[in-house]
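Obj.: predict assembly geometry.
Materials: sequence records (below).
Method: joint structure prediction, all chains together.
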Amino acid sequence: QQPVQSPQAVILREGEDAVINCSSSKALYSVHWYRQKHGEAPVFLMILLKGGEQKGHEKISASFNEKKQQSSLYLTASQLSYSGTYFCGTDHTSGTYKYIFGTGTRLKVLA
Amino acid sequence: DGGITQSPKYLFRKEGQNVTLSCEQNLNHDAMYWYRQDPGQGLRLIYYSQIVNDFQKGDIAEGYSVSREKKESFPLTVTSAQKNPTAFYLCASRETSGIVYNEQFFGPGTRLTVL
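Observations (raw structure tokens):
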């Protein structure tokens, strides 16, 4: 089943923060985050493998909860360049290489 | 430079015609994927291939076909059985090496329009 992302869309002013969530009804083996600009291919941001993991840097970071059913992406002090659609991606089932994406979150940063 | 190429960038098709979208990678990745994206929507998996001469249906395979005769190539054919094929098609690949955690690398996409 496709992971569900929330919110579906968010509008920010430059400098504001945002949190994007990716939730699954079953434990995920790993989660990847991507950003897609309009008309372009998605670009990889980061990967999380372990329950309880947090990674990233000051501006863009992510976490993976202990049960590995939810991941969150944190965008701090947003910039205009952060605008785009964010997707989480995951292996559907271990060992099958079937890879699916979440429902997506459209983020727009205004000056 | 290593990467994934897709051609053509734009493709127009008349109803009832089959068309083939090209996808080539020189990253030496074993696994390759095709996704469909409709305007304002997410990416839905059409087909994927773990190794040469093997491929699996994704979530929306009806009306599509693929082949994987070479490691570098994974062409997608959109057949006349696909009732609403107008969409943005993305090809991707990933390194597996026995670990199913690596991220996907994408080609630039092909925008297909049915006239």
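Conclusions so far: DSSP finds no helices and eleven strands in chain B.
To do: check interface contacts against the pulldown list.
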